Amino acid sequence: MSRSYQFIVQPDEARQRLDRFLSRRQALDLSRSQIQRLVEMDQVAVNGQIAAKASVLLRAGDRVEIILPEPQESRILPQDIPLDIVYEDESVIVVNKPAGMVVHPAAGNYTGTLVNALLYHCRFLSGIGGELRPGIVHRLDKGTSGLLVVAKTDAAHRSLSEQIKARTIRRVYKAIVYGKMPQSEGEIETLIGRHPADRKKMSTLTKKGRLAITRYAVEEFFSSGFSLLRLCLQTGRTHQIRVHLSSLGHPLVADPVYGRRSPPLSVRKHQKLYQAIVDLKRQALHAELLGFIHPEQNRYLEFTAPLPQDLANLLDALRESEGESP
């Protein structure tokens, strides 16, 4: 059954945006993004008139009405796809995503995604992400392997989203890049936005981007012309690590968008290394560590995932190449 609520704007609440006002009503337990969707669905009225925008400013004495529709089951097809579940309870699931798996349905990928697999596994996820992204708090690119946390309840989703906004979630990646970094450790801070010429790519060459911060440390440098990096995300922009490293002239190995598709000719003398790069069908990036405060238990949880076999093979080949004669 749908539910209807009414609220009166108090004098100290005047001049608040409609979505902000409603997000503070404990009886609703809704995020601002959820309220904005309800406004778009004509489910919110102010003084008997359907609200045209979530940004409308309220006045003292205004009567705000909101209707919460009956929950609908997702139309996404649950699929019996194996999952590497690292941790699960009633609030969250931590998954070690394989490279090649898309996180949520989108144009061209409506099946075979992590969301399809999760809905088969647990049936219900947080609805805050919308029908196509239920439970999804943060993402990994299709070609990136490793850890991500998914919310099973709306309360967990809000808590994890706030932790990401506050930059308190710990996200550590391993990456193999071309070349030697200019310093053994450092911080990359730029704006990232849509590429001015290729709208399918992201770029640091933008005037309307969002702040992006990545910290890195070099764990190993190989004389064959590669580096193993440990990276910590301070923000979570689309393709952030890939764009940042490419902007420094040290793209991820085998990155098909921001790097080179095939190894340089100089690598051919190291046959095993050359073959390991050729066999790598995705960028050399792995989300190795994930830490966050549990939304309900209020305790810090931290998880790690070892390098998958394809990246382990590449790393072995790099180490072996160190002992080869030029």
Summary keywords:
ten-stranded mixed sheet; 14 strands; Pseudouridine synthase; Structural Genomics Hypothetical 15.5 Kd Protein In mrcA-pckA Intergenic Region, Chain A; 7 helices; 20% helix; four-stranded antiparallel sheet; alpha+beta
What does this structure look like?
Helix content is 20%, strand content 28%. It is of the alpha+beta class and 326 residues long. The protein has three domains: 3-68, RNA-binding S4 domain (Structural Genomics Hypothetical 15.5 Kd Protein In mrcA-pckA Intergenic Region, Chain A); 85-165, Pseudouridine synthase; 170-321, 2-Layer Sandwich (Pseudouridine synthase). The radius of gyration is 23 Å and the shape is elongated.
N-to-C CA distance: 74 Å
Give the overall pLDDT as a whole number: 92
Shape: elongated
pLDDT < 50 runs, ≥5 residues: none
CATH-level-2 architecture of the largest domain: 2-Layer Sandwich
> How much is the radius of gyration in Å?
23 Å
Task: Provide the helix percentage.
Answer: 10-25%
Q: What structural class do you assign from the helix and strand content?
A: alpha+beta
The number of distinct structural domains comes to: 3
CATH class of the largest domain: Alpha Beta
The helix-strand sequence is EHHEEEEEHEHEEEEEHHEEH
Give the name of the CATH superfamily of the largest domain: Pseudouridine synthase
Query: Any idea of the CATH topology of the largest domain?
Result: Pseudouridine synthase
Number of strands: 14
- The amount of beta strand, in percent, is 25-35%
User: Main β-sheet, in a few words?
Assistant: 10 strands, mixed
Number of helices: 7
